[in-house]
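Go through this:
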Amino acid sequence: MRLLIAQCQVDYAGRLSAHLPMATRLIMVKADGSVSVHADDRAYKPLNWMSAPCTLTAGPPPADVEAVVGDESGLTEVWEVRNSAGDTLQIAIGEVLHDSSHHLGVDPGLVKDGVEAHLQVLLAANPATFGEGWSLVQREYLTPIGPVDLLFRDDSGAYVAVEVKRRGEIDGVEQLTRYLALMNADPLFSPVRGVFAAQQIKPQAKVLAGTRGIDCVLVDYDALRGLDDAEDRLF
């Protein structure tokens, strides 16, 4: 991973256009080639990014600097990041405050707590939790940015990606949204819809999921384990 803290201007061109004026930011270049630009806020979320697979080309600033950054000067180089769809992320870099590279090795992945991991196993074994005629394709289906917990086919044969959480929050919806964007870009899977499954789902997460076209499913962990039979309940 390369970490670069520098003055930079960022311009994205693709399905939409976005512009970040010159300011000091953190630029991360990961081993898979993905590039993200961060401000000193927003926790994990970048201001702009290009997901892998993509290519990065770095070159000297153009002779006509004003064409890139107006009347600003002091550019050291200009990066162009391009993906297979032809989207581009142009990063004009000025003063560099920090530049380092680090080898992180193979990541062991997220280790989920016992309840969440067991919940995933139980849902994989009980596709009818989501609907009649559903069938499991694969657990932990790998994407370039991480594994989708469960991949199913519904009763119509369409693919459905399911993210499983013990407590459903906004971060989980954002995670599933990123998986869906990648999978829907693949003609072998598209269209893929998403389901956010959890024992508890916060109201804000439900609202966000609704805006993303993601269904929310509340899961009864004890019922799946066979410890709670609805027919034995008094009320």
User: Anything to note?
Assistant: The chain has two domains: 2-101, 114-230.
